[in-house]
Amino acid sequence: MIKNLSAVGRRHKWLIGQMRQGIDQALQGAGSDAVSFMRQSPGFNSHGSGPGTVLGSVKRKVLRLRSGAKLIVSSTSKLAFWMEHGTRPHFIRPKMGEFLRFFWPKVGHVVFARLVLHPGTRPYTFMSRGMTKVGHKLQGDLHARFRFLFKRF
Q1: What's the pTM value of the predicted model, to 2 decimals?
Q2: Among candidates 22, 6, 38, 8, which has minimal Cα distance to 133?
Q3: Could you point out which of 6, 8, 68, 110 has its C-alpha 20 to 30 Å from the C-alpha of 75?
Q4: CA 102 to CA 92: how far, in whole Å?
Q5: Domain spans in the chain, listed from the N-terminal domain onward
Q6: Element (H or E) spanning 61, and its range?
Q7: What is the pLDDT of residues 113-144, one digit of tens each?
């Protein structure tokens, strides 16, 4: 039988506050881990990681909503979508002038062309792999935090 209902109410408020704080801390940590994992993804060394690059544009944000909190990891780079999902074979035409000019390693010299059939690119899936990896870690972190809090309650 509960003798002091107000004490239970105070402990409940404390528990809810601690849970919210734990969720916020866990999401902040998961966001940092996700960005770090994405920036270390294999295959991106040639693209760089400065502020103007795809990896440099990966950001994290924790939104606090009435229903809880939400972690958003996104990229402001226009190339990020194509790097994440890959591209199909497609034609490339010159934007200005009549010819495309590029070095073709296969032939070993500069080539001029009016039209090029690009073979497409494979998807890197750096963002989805990063979020999946961090999601598993976040789940374990929250489980440990809540188990500790419930023992103290």
Answers
A1: 0.70
A2: 38
A3: 68
A4: 12
A5: 5-85+124-152, 87-120
A6: strand 58-65
A7: 999 999 999 998 888 988 998 998 899 999 99
